[in-house]
Amino acid sequence: MIAFASNSLLCRAALKQTSIDAATFTFIRIFSGAAALWLIMKMRNASAGAAVYDRRSEGNWLSAAALFVYAAAFSFAYNTLSAGMGALLLFGAVQATMVLWGLRKGEKLQVIQIVGLIVAVSGLVALVFPGLSAPPFSGSILMFGAGVAWGIYSLRGQTASDAIAATAGNFLRAVPFAVAVGIIMLPWARFDRAGIGYAVISGAITSGLGYVIWYIVLSDSMPVRLGPAGAATVQLSVPVLAATGGILLLGEPITLRYLVASIAVLGGIALVVIEKNHE
């Protein structure tokens, strides 16, 4: 979740504080993630004395498409949306996608989990709502689409037998999509040294490595599984972590609203996850 929150901070910093454009940021982010994960796979195979790894576990085109749609829509949406509204739309869409899929697959929530879910969502709304204004329609649609795409990508991670290989394969497959959009948007491309640096960090570290960890957590082979609803609820902590990052890194003030909302979100998540582990 810290990696996810860092992606929001890096993307907002790049698009608001530098001159880099969303398409270029997305391409560099995905390419950097693919390059970093390719190097990790090469080192892992070399240390294991293997020339190749099991190609059946190296991701697939559908997951790669979901990954790209999330990354691109996320970047373009933050050109027009405020941070608060962006977080509300993104994680609201993720929550709806994953919870509805879990219910469709027969996942049942206990009463205490439902209470925890309501408390967490209420805390998220309290965190972002006071600063919201009427959002641009195009940005709202893009961020909602990013949330649905990320929910799909997360759900597909449950069947990944090798998290590193699957994430590496998905990133490599997403590169051609990013190249295509980059070519289309080339007339509006803007390059900025600081923006490129933000994109590389976002791609290689907080996306590439962060998504490997996320796929490990979601895997069906884990001793204790979160399930779709639990995984969706845990991600509601990201706006709280992003706000914390703003306080620690950007000098933003600590407010009573932030403290109360953080307690509500984290407490609600705890109710969902702890009850899930007791089932």
List the total number of helices: 11
Task: Please state the structural category.
Answer: mainly alpha
> What percentage of the residues does DSSP assign to strands (E)?
under 5%
The helicity comes to over 70%
Biggest sheet overview? none
- Mean of pLDDT: 79
- Gyration radius, in Å: 18 Å
Q: Work out the count of structural domains.
A: 1
How far is it from the N-terminal to the C-terminal residue, by CA? Answer: 24 Å
Shape: globular
The low-pLDDT segments are 51-56
Element pattern in H and E: HHHHHHHHHHH
Q: List how many beta strands DSSP finds.
A: 0
Plain-language structure description:
The protein is mostly helical and 279 residues long. Helices cover 76% and strands 0% of the residues.
Please give a handful of descriptors for the protein shown.
279 residues; mainly alpha; 11 helices; 0% strand; globular
